[in-house]
Amino acid sequence: METSRINDPRTPPCAPAAGCDVVTVPARQGLEAVDILRRGPGEAVGPVLHDDGGGTLGFLVPTGTAAAWDLPGSTCTGTNGRGTSFAPRPPVEGSDWLLPPGEADLATDPAVLRRALGEAARTIEAADSCR
Fold first, then answer.
1. Is the alpha carbon torsion for 32, 35, 39, 40 positive or negative?
2. CA 61/CA 108 separation, integer angstroms
């Protein structure tokens, strides 16, 4: 797996041998962000997990992202290079793939994800204020 847009050596590609970090967000914001990313140019969204209860989504991002992730309303969990099993089962117990590897082979670029999550939060806030 490689990152979709970043060529920054400080943000290494996500590879099964090295593992990936996972950015977890509320499902509503995550689904909106997936839509935003899929409408964008290129392959902007990588594999995405959802929990069995449907309350959260997890975006696979390059290893090392967790060290600098500070977006309110989300968390980023590092794998510390332990490796991740990608198929056929998801790497997190009690989850399933929303976008499995194969359909989405690249890890999501953290900068692109941050922008999409911000846009998603603003869209949700605007929609909720119209009620």
1. positive
2. 5
pTM of the model: 0.79
Question: How many residues would you count in the chain?
Answer: 131
Alpha helices in the chain (DSSP H): 27-39, 110-129
Please count the CA atoms within 13 angstroms of the CA of 52 that sit on its side-chain side. Answer: 5
Tokens of 99: 């976008």
Single out the residue of 78, 74, 73 nearest to residue 61, CA to CA: 78
List the beta bridge partners of residue 49: 58, 97
Which tokens sit at 66? 């967790």
pLDDT digits (tens, 9 = 90+) for 32-55: 999 999 998 776 899 999 987 879
